[in-house]
Each structure stands twice: as structure tokens, then as C-alpha cells.
Please model this.
Amino acid sequence: MNKVSIIFSRISVWLIVSALLVASCKQGGKRSKDDGQATIPRDNAAFYDDIKKAEKIFYTLPSPLESAMLIKSAGAIFDDAILNPTENVRNYITNRSRALNLGIYTCDLSFASLYDQTQLIIDYMSAAKSMADGLGILDAVADEDITKLEENIHDTETIMDIVSQTYLNSNSYLEDNGQPAIAAIVLTGGWIEGLYIGTQLIDMKNFENNELVVRIIDQKLSVDILLNLLESNSGHPVVDELILQVGKIKRVFDKITLTTTPVKAEYDQPSNMTVLKSEVKSDLTLEVFKELSAIVAEIRNSFIK
Amino acid sequence: MRIFKVIVAASLIILASSASVSGQCKAFAKKTCLPELGSYTHDGNYHAVVLSEGEEAELYKTFYSNMEYRLSICGEEALPPVEFIVYDANRNVLYSSRDDSFAGTWDFRLESSQQLRIHIKVGTASQPGTTPASGCVSIMFGFRIK
Model:
């Protein structure tokens, strides 16, 4: 076999493997019965029992936009000092740091958008674009989006639409191009940033009956979903590292007990929607909150280095 | 040498068709499912998958109190109706689209935050011996403050 044939055969093998891998990734992430690699016990393992039959399982976290909306609706006051400075963009040269900070900057962008921080909106959109471009995500943020953003900088609804589209474009690109692990890392960055902003904005003098504290407690419900998402992508070195870090947060959340009454679905005629009625009680103490806040800050600050 | 050319061509076709199917689902989700959210703000998450008749998907998500949500589930025209059922953490059925004439959207709000499971199943309509239909199924969420 001459040199050209050897090179050609190697390219062929690479292409076949790539094609098969990509094709298998596009099958909707089918899972077998033994596919679950849970390493950290779940509070409600039975809840996840039925997943074996499904062709595709989606573990969905609150998006950065939803997290920002939860924080704002709880009455929190905007503080740009807690966001990840956009100057840090130049420090992110690995896929790990770009993926984590794509989630973080998108969360910061969402937060700035809801509080009409015009210059910050443009700065954080550019930072998110830089991260997406670095990851090779095509058209996550098109130049037209930046122009549209600048033209509608005082129109919160249009800005929220653009932010939502940006996040959708990034996620769909990564999912559709066989990079679900990178997509999971982006989602983790966004979730941690939302939790970080929430914990940093709590007024400690007003801890009791604080709506923002309730929103933090709510994240106990999402930590298992995040671990499932990460564990479904285990084997990727960054994902494996994140499983350990999120595991630390889960261990603190495990110290909080949530007691929920049975959920009753009732149709509400005036609002034309179903109301899911139930009551929830929790026993979060100031001490546990401080522990949670510290561990979240430690992990988040390691992400933005 | 000729066999290599055939292998390369076949591989490129597989790669191209895979990318095309995915792009098709994203375009379908944005064009068909997104407008169904109406006045609700899309959360930005992307959930779309190619399913065949009889196949199922599951989605786990936390929904928050004092927010109003619209869940929108769309299947491509080639598919039979797509049914979805919403369960609470204790596996109680909270909503079934089958009982609502296979509606594609469901509006709801919660008095307390809950982790819910959404089970999606594509119906079957093909005659035995024929190829089951397959197509994109997309799940989207919109939210607004109460």
C-alpha cells in the first residue's frame, strides 16, 4: 500500500467512526435499562423509575432567563458588582471555561436585561457571543442580534426574546452536533450563577419571610435534575468534575427538609388555566443557608477564574 | 482505492443526513412550536427529538410558585397525535392531553414549587406491515409572572 492509500484509509476510518458516532448521537439519546449511572443517591429515586421505557429523557433546569425572573420577582435589588466582569472574557481559552462561562454570562445578561441595565446588556451579550464563538457554536448570536438589541435597548420584551433565542441557538447547536456534554456544562454554569446571584442578594437582616430565600430553597428540587443531567453525560472529564462539585451543593440541600401536601389540580375558569394546589414547608436555618452560600460561592468563583 | 471512495462517500452522506435531521427539528421547533407560546416568554431551553409511532419521551423540570406557565408540545404533521401526561413527584396524574382532545398546550400555575414529570407518547396509526411514521417532536415552556 503506498503512502496516499494509507492516508486515505486512515481518513476513511475516521469518517466512518465519526459518522457512526454522530448518527448514534442523533437517535435521541436512547437509553437502555442499565444506562443510569447514578452515583449520588436521590431523594425521590422512585420518581425516576419510569424513565427506562422512554426513547429520550430530558432533564431541564431553570434557564438563565427563568432564574433571573425568579430573582427579580422575589424583590431583589440589582447589583452589578456580583456579576462576572466581562473583562474576564480573555481568560477563557479552554472549552471547559468557555462552556461554563457561556452559561454564567447568559445568566448575567438575563439579570441585566430584567433590570434595564442598557450598557451591561450590550456588554454581556458580547461576552456570551465571545464564549459561543470560542466553542464553535455557529450563529448563537448573530451580528443582526446585537444590532437589534442596540435598537431595542429599552424594550425589555424584545431583549428577553433575543436572550431566549441566543440560549436556544446555543443549546440546540450543541445537542444537534453531538456535544450534549458541553450543553450540560453550559446549563450547569447558568444554574450555578443563578444560585450564586440569589444567595449573594439575600439581606441577612431580613432572612425570615424573605421571598428570595424561598426561591433558594426551591433549587433543592432542581439539584437532583442537574445531577441526573450530568450523570447521563458522565465519562467526560469536566462533567465528572462537575458531578463532584454539584454533589457538595446537594449535600447541603439535603440538610433542608421540604414537606409538601398532595398536589391537587383544579381548573380556574377566570384565568382559564389549571391551578396546582399544595402547600410546602421547609426548615432552612440561617446556619445551613450560610453553608450553602459559601459552597456555591466557592464553586462559582472557581468557574470564573 | 475504489472501496475507500465508496466508504468516504457513504460516511459523508450519513454525516450530512444526521445534521439535516437535527437542523430540521430545530427549524420545526422554532417555526411551529415557539409561536404556540403566545404571550408567554420562552425560557430558552431546547427540547426536540425524532420519534416514531409508539415511541415515548420523558421530561423532568421544576416549576415555581407565583409563575404562570404554558407547556407546548408539537409533533410534525406526518405523526399521529402526540399525547402528553403530567405527573407530580408521587406519580399522580395532574393532566392528560387525551382528556383534553389531544390539546397541544397546557396553561397552569402552582401554589408551591414542584418537580413535575412530563410523559410524551406518539400514537400509532400505521397498518401492520407498513413503515411507522416518524418525525420531530418538540417540547417548549413559556412563563410569565402572575
In short: The radius of gyration of chain B is 18 Å.
